[in-house]
Amino acid sequence: MHLPAFLPRPAARTLYAATAVAALAAATLVPLSARAADLSLNVAEGPATEATLYIPLYADAASFGASKPLASQSLPLREGKARVVFAGLPPGRYAVRAYADENGNGKLDTNLVRLPTERYGFSNDAKGKLGAPDFEAAAIGVDADLQSAIHLR
């Protein structure tokens, strides 16, 4: 290896070693929790008939309350079950709502007193009093790949 004339051989070795140590330190100091994670959800107890499962994902209480999801997926239920993955999520707390659209109109139907007439559920199998649970009740901490279940009711 040819070294520049302005850099003596021992100084070059020190520079190369310092660069290698800095690169290694930077790689090991990045905490594992700062890496993206996958949230896998197993949804059960859906209707045995044909239905589409809608699953919005919320990153905070404000978006949960305003029904403005960070991401959303829809897929057919098979024998009342489905599995969905939200991939590459940054570490944080997330809440999920899920409902089975049994009549194909793309929304959760309710009766005259606004009680759901189609099956629905939340992450943590959270339940609310006289309505949907709040974000804190449904929130799941995701800092590594995580599997969770939602039971529709």
Ordered list of secondary-structure elements with their pairings:
Blueprint: H1 9-29, E1 37-44, E2 52-58, H2 61-66, E3 71-76, E4 82-89, E5 92-101, E6 120-122, H3 135-138, E7 140-142, E8 146-151
Parallel strand pairs: 1-8
Antiparallel strand pairs: 1-4, 2-3, 2-5, 5-6, 5-7
Could you please describe the fold and organization of this structure?
The chain has helices spanning 9-29, 61-66, 135-138; strands spanning 37-44, 52-58, 71-76, 82-89, 92-101, 120-122, 140-142, 146-151. Strands 2, 3, 5, 6 and 7 form a 5-stranded antiparallel sheet that branches. The radius of gyration is 24 Å and the shape is globular. With 153 residues, the chain is of the alpha+beta class. The longest helix has 21 residues, at 9-29.
Number of helical regions: 3
Terminal residue distance: 71 Å
Uncertain residue ranges: 20-30
* Computed Rg: 24 Å
Please summarize the sheet with the most strands.
Answer: 5 strands, antiparallel
Portion in strands: 25-35%
Mean pLDDT, nearest integer?
86
Helix content: 10-25%
SSE string, helices as H and strands as E: HEEHEEEEHEE
Class by alpha and beta content: alpha+beta
Shape: globular
Query: Total number of β-strand segments?
Result: 8
Brief account:
It contains 3 helices and 8 strands; from the N terminus they run αββαββββαββ. The chain is α+β, with helices and mostly antiparallel strands and 153 residues long.
Features:
three-stranded mixed β-sheet, alpha+beta, five-stranded antiparallel β-sheet, 153 residues, 20% helix
